[in-house]
Amino acid sequence: MAIPKAMRYLAGATCLIFIFLLVTLYRTDPTAIKLPTIKPGNGAPKPAAKGALEPGDRPQGWDHDPQQDPSGEPPEPLHRVNGDNYAPDNANSDRINATLLSLVRNEELDDMLQSMQDLESTWNHKFNYPWTFFNDVPFTKEFKEKTSAATKAKTHYHTIPKEHWEIPSWINKDLYTESKKMLSEKGVQYSEMDSYHQMCRWNSGVFYKHPALEKVQYYWRVEPKVHFFCGVDYDVFRYMQDHNKTYGFTLTLLDSPDSVATLWPETMKFLADHPEYEAKNNAKGFLTEEKEKGHNKITNGYSTCHFWSNFEIANLDLWRSPAYTQYFDHLDKAGGFFYERWGDAPVHSVAVGLFEDKSRVHWFRDIGYQHIPFFNCPNNGKCKGCEAGRFTDGEDWLNSQDCRNVWFKHAGMEA
């Protein structure tokens, strides 16, 4: 029986639409972020024990590092230099309420100047955002003169109030002394340094309470002795604002499980009292999927994956929120910044992973960065001095410390 002409037209149109949708779905932009394919037989992470990996092997199970793929800038809108709209002396510039932020000692001056030189040459000489420096003692005249000479932007220097830096009164000093000794015996790095514990606590939940940051909206944390490799031609703070992002990172790694053994149980206690703070579209799986065998057992459920916070670009309202304010207060009273070695990286990461919508967290793929011994090196034609796709220039086993594959699995690569 002959098929009516109208039905034949309808069937033909349906086929054309189907083909169009398939082409649209599978068409690949060569600069789009895409997850590498899983290498056959290499789907499981390798343990972090020392031992050479096979040439080209990836503990993440990838056939290659995603940073080897050509990439470009994040999506528009992007704000760029146009005439004098970002000139340092322009009172009506396009800059928003943001600062570059550094906690640094006077004796780290040379290392700080190196970090400034890199970031100024790759980005800030175009946008002229101010630098804000913090120290637990007053900055020297030399430090102020040399850092202010390293930028056309404004520079600000602040001493941390003693009540923000000193070990809190509720910390049992005998228990703290014994805890430091035990952590050291377990090989937890910096565990016997009081200043390191104090720094981790300050960076976790005290820094933004300084009066100098009271009215600041965004910050980009910059540490001494880091490197920036790639030209960035857009205002990253405006990107965060325009795209509703609250937290930006470049690297995500495993932590020492012994340093955070009780962080997850304390977090679960807090959530039991405040279930309303857990975001619906969160990244809890990033925090709980076991990447390194044995970590979750030591930590009672935490994978130890975290954003490496020596680089972070964030909206300060994230830390000022009731959820984080109460969470930090809970952790602070629990004492883990001193009885263990809770760092600002895992504390910030757990909070972001649980309290924030994961779509508001952004991987700055295009910002080439190094903090010894790890790299974020994109393949975008604007980079000098780092090899695209290189994750570390240290021993091979350090490749197993990369948590990007876990983040991409639970949050995607487009965020």
UniProtKB/TrEMBL annotation:
GO terms for molecular function: alpha-1,2-mannosyltransferase activity. Pfam families: Glyco_transf_15. Transmembrane segments: none annotated. Signal peptide: none annotated. Residues 39-52 have a biased composition (Low complexity). Belongs to the glycosyltransferase 15 family. This is Glycosyl transferase. It comes from Bimuria novae-zelandiae CBS 107.79. The lineage of its organism: Eukaryota, Fungi, Dikarya, Ascomycota, Pezizomycotina.
